[in-house]
Design goal:
Layout (H helix, E strand, L loop, with lengths): L2 E3 L10 E9 L3 E3 L2 E6 L2 E10 L3 E15 L6 E15 L13 E2 L2 E3 H12 L38 H9 L1
Antiparallel strand pairs: 1-9, 2-5, 3-4, 4-6, 5-6, 6-7, 8-9
Length: 169
């Protein structure tokens, strides 16, 4: 877990602090499948800007995420550029919109923030190619390697008694 000690940064209104930080990322689990960031520790740029009413935090990094394709389960890698911004008011007065959940006891939890920002930037489905055909629902073969169709199935034998009743009506 990567945290940043905010006590080492003292800024006045309008001033800015920039630092290069290596942020450790944990694997993401989506739909029961694990997606690993490679490398697990990504170089990031942290910017802290002091405003009159609070502080603006910015985090930027690039990550390669490795895991299975949603449709065919092939090994897949996607690259994402992440830019995240958080705001912490000087006096939030209990308003959750004016404070960030990543700051506690003068430390900024960069790992949790980076992970949440990554989760928000993920595509709807992680695919090895946009035209992935997926797996055959009947036999389970990869339709990208072996495009095929099955003859119309006669039906589930467990429903045979009901099929006979339907034919009589």
């Amino acid at each position: 877990m990567t945290v940043f000690n905010l006590r080492k940064v003292t800024l006045r209104g309008g001033q800015q602090f920039r630092d290069d930080v290596d942020v450790q990322l944990e694997p993401l689990v989506l739909g029961g499948q694990e997606y690993r960031p490679v490398p697990a520790e990504v170089p990031s740029k942290l910017t802290i800007t002091k405003a009159t009413s609070g502080t603006v935090y910015e985090l930027a990094y690039r990550v390669h995420l490795h895991g299975p394709c949603f449709r065919c389960l092939r090994d897949t890698a996607i690259e994402l550029s992440i830019r995240a911004t958080e705001y912490q008011a000087n006096n939030p007065d209990g308003d959750e919109e004016l404070e960030t959940p990543y700051i506690a006891d003068d430390t900024l939890d960069l790992s949790a923030w980076a992970r949440d920002a990554l989760a928000l930037e993920l595509p709807e489905k992680i695919l090895h190619s946009p035209d992935c055909a997926g797996l055959c629902p009947d036999c389970g073969k990869d339709l990208n390697d072996e495009p095929h169709a099955h003859d119309e199935a006669s039906g589930d034998p467990r429903w045979a008694a009901l099929d006979k009743l339907r034919d009589r009506l």
